[in-house]
Write a structure and sequence with these properties.
- 8% of the residues lie in helices and 39% in strands.
- With 208 residues, the chain is mainly beta.
- It has a single domain (27-201), classed as Jelly Rolls.
- Strands 1, 5, 8, 9, 11 and 13 form a 6-stranded antiparallel beta sheet that branches.
- A hairpin with a 5-residue loop joins strand 3 (60-63) and strand 4.
- It is globular, with a radius of gyration of 26 Å.
Length: 208
């Protein structure tokens, strides 16, 4: 029995000098990711304003020249949208948020969330896109509608977004800037328009 056990033990012993060498460990992806909550104030009443993925990617821009801003990120997904609107005394206001698929190939939650307020308490809406809908997934810049808004002037709109930036891609913003400071980061409103014509102001600056 002792001899049998000795043979088994001998078979388990690794020869001296036998070293296992592996290749360098694999690396994760090199993309830049950013999650944020951006705030906007509505300057004029909106009726079914479509907010596209292009609009969402144009929110954060790199000013490569005085007139040609580029998107800092190349894809975006919506985590949530929240709105507050205060009525004038003795009146009522309504805010409406819709996750709808108005462009072929981009299906939203087909969901409408609305609130009406009277008196001094603001109308308040907060909603997330449905799970496994394209709005809840990363999308590249396009004219497909992520959601649309109906709200009065003075409404505060928050959007919670996740961004990704893939190396080697450059996406020009849909609208040029005017006499912008070259080399800085800047912001735009949810309608994607330049500051002079946008219906939105941001809570941070500069806005171009």
């Amino acid at each position: 029995m002792r001899g049998k056990n000795t043979r088994k033990t001998a078979r388990k012993v690794r020869p001296v000098g036998a070293v296992s060498i592996t290749h360098p460990p694999s690396l994760g992806n090199f993309e830049i990711t950013h999650s944020t909550r951006l705030r906007f104030i509505v300057g004029a009443a909106l009726l079914d304003l479509p907010v596209t993925y292009q609009n969402l990617l144009d929110l954060i821009l790199f000013l490569a020249s005085a007139t040609a801003p580029y998107d800092v990120f190349t894809s975006v997904k919506v985590r949530a949208v929240e709105m507050w609107a205060a009525p004038l005394l003795g009146s009522a206001v309504t805010t409406t948020l819709r996750f709808v698929g108005e462009t072929a190939g981009s299906v939203g939650s087909l969901r409408t969330v609305t609130d009406t307020s009277m008196g001094i308490e603001p109308a308040h809406v907060r909603a997330k896109p449905g799970p496994n809908t394209l709005t809840s997934m990363f999308q590249v810049s396009s004219g497909a509608v992520a959601f649309d808004l109906t709200c009065p002037a003075g409404t505060v709109v928050d959007v919670e977004l996740s961004y990704k930036n893939l190396p080697g891609q450059a996406v020009l913003a849909q609208n040029p800037s005017v006499a912008a400071t070259v080399g800085i980061l800047a912001y735009r409103g949810l309608d994607g328009l330049a500051q002079a014509t946008s219906k939105f102001t941001t809570a941070v600056s500069p806005q171009v």
